[in-house]
Structures are given as C-alpha cells and as structure tokens.
From TrEMBL:
Family the UniProt entry places it in: Belongs to the BioW family.
Keywords, in A-Z order: ATP-binding, Biotin biosynthesis, Ligase, Magnesium, Nucleotide-binding
Reaction(s) this enzyme catalyzes, per UniProt: heptanedioate + ATP + CoA = 6-carboxyhexanoyl-CoA + AMP + diphosphate
EC class (word): ligase
Protein name (Swiss-Prot/TrEMBL): 6-carboxyhexanoate--CoA ligase
Record carries keyword Ligase: yes
Length: 256
C-alpha cells in the first residue's frame, strides 16, 4: 500500500508590515494536510489570522510544501492542570515544576531575568541550563517549531476522554510541547500566550508531562513567553533542524 502524501502548511501574520521589517507579530500556525484537504487547511489558518485578539494583520503569508520524509507518530504528553488564584502563585508553581524537571534554581532565575526582553519574539528561545544564556542565533525571530499536527478526530477523542474543551489552542500547544519534549536534549519548556485574553500557560517535560497552570499573566498583557531549556546540546543545528523540519503527528491511543 502506498503511504499518503502530506503537505506542511504554515501561516504567519503581522501588523505594521512583515515581521522582518519590524511588524508586530499577530499570529502563526502550522498544519499537516493531505492534498485534498489543502483548501480547508489554508482557510483554517486564514481564519486564525484575520480574527485575532492581538489585532488585525496587514501582512499575512500562507505557504505549503510537500513533505519528503516519513512522518513520525508519537503519543501526546500526559496532562495535568494546576488551578491557581494569582499570577504570583502561578509563576511559583511554574518555577517549582521547572526545578522538578531538572532546571537548576539559579538557571530558572537567570531565564526569568531575560523573559521580558524576549516577550515579543514570534518563536521560542533556546536557553542553555549550563551557561545560563540564550544559545539560538535567531534574534527577533526565535525558533519556530514546525511540521507537526494532530488529526482533529483523534484529538477530539482525547479531549472528550479528559473532559477538556475541543480547543485548537490546547491542541496546538500540546502538539508543540510533545514534539519539543521528545528530543533528548530538551529539559523542559515554559510557555504562556502572547494573546491578551489568554492567561493559562504550562511547563512541559518528558517526565512531568504537560502541566497547565491557569494563571501565568494578567488579562490584557500581550507579552508571551516560550523558552526551551536545553542541556548537553553539542549539536545546536541538528536540534533546531529537528524542531523545524522533522514531520510528526501526535496520535492518542491505538486508532488510525
Ligand atoms: C498560545 O496561546 O500561544 C499558548 C497557549 C498555551 C496554553 C494552552 C492550554 O490551555 O493548555
Ligand atoms: Mg502564536
Ligand atoms: Mg488540522
Ligand atoms: Mg498567540
């Protein structure tokens, strides 16, 4: 039987010009799609970009390209939720989860000192837990994790099973966190949204799973965060290549 061919479909949208000309990041998105479904994928990403709480974009790009490598399938990280009453409580839960995942306390503090500096990047930063410094070379862009998805029917089964909303946001975040944590050099990820109306974030790692924290910033705040804490990264380029290029489907349970 012939394997089905998939396409990576990517969108980025910004305001006051394209990102590379200093525009403000509005939205980004990733899909893996069959040829027959491309129209639907492009529309989903278009819809995401033009109805966004960060504002109306005046630049948007959607592109697709055929995937020429076998697509890995991996199970989603197990999930937990921490209900917190304040940002302070949420951030203290985040710090203790990061420590549990293996990030030394002083490195957590170092990363937090740099959080605001990186809060308007559209991608993630790679933070080395030995040197306490950012080690990607992507400046204002950051690293964009790409070529991943979770088939909607399978995701919805997962969501119903765990009594989670069938939210594309949760799906996309869990897909990304699962992909990132699967690489052996990743110690943990810390993330909260740059969308002003969304204040739940998470800490994720292979051991801890995907640990949601219900309040990591105040409503209205457009400063987001996405840090990958990495260790023993002898080959930074192959790590970034994995994040950007390795195609991967998250799949829950046994069903096809
Ligand atoms: C984002 O919006 O960019 C990140 C959302 C992270 C949290 C999603 C969740 O509720 O689990
Ligand atoms: Mg985004
Ligand atoms: Mg899809
Ligand atoms: Mg966002």
């Amino acid at each position: 039987m012939q394997e089905e061919v998939f396409y990576s479909v990517r969108m980025r949208a910004s305001k006051n010009g394209p990102h590379e000309k200093g525009g403000k990041h509005i939205s980004g998105g990733e899909q893996l799609s069959t040829y027959a479904n491309l129209k639907h994928s492009v529309n989903t990403l278009l819809e995401k970009a033009i109805s966004h709480s960060r504002g109306n974009p005046d630049f948007m790009q959607i592109q697709f390209e055929m995937i020429d490598k076998p697509i890995k399938k991996i199970q989603p990280l197990p999930m937990g939720t921490h209900e917190v009453g304040s940002v302070e409580e949420g951030q203290s839960v985040a710090r203790s989860l990061l420590q549990k995942a293996g990030v030394p306390a002083e490195m957590i503090e170092k990363a937090y000192e740099q959080v605001t500096e990186y809060s308007d990047l559209r991608g993630a930063i790679l933070f080395d837990i030995r040197s306490g410094s950012r080690i990607d070379d992507r400046q204002q862009k950051g690293v964009r994790v790409s070529r991943m998805d979770w088939l909607t029917t399978n995701f919805e089964k997962w969501a119903d099973h765990y009594q989670m909303p069938r939210s594309p946001r949760v799906k996309e975040a869990l897909v990304l966190a699962t992909k990132v944590s699967t690489h052996p050099a990743t110690v943990a990820e810390l993330c909260w949204s740059d969308d002003p109306e969304y204040i739940t974030g998470y800490v994720a790692s292979k051991q801890l799973g995907y640990q949601r924290i219900t309040k990591l910033k105040e409503y209205g705040d457009e400063r987001g965060c996405r840090i990958f804490f990495v260790d023993g990264l002898s080959d930074r380029h192959s790590y970034i290549d994995y994040l950007e290029k390795q195609p991967l489907f998250v799949q829950w349970g046994e069903d096809e």
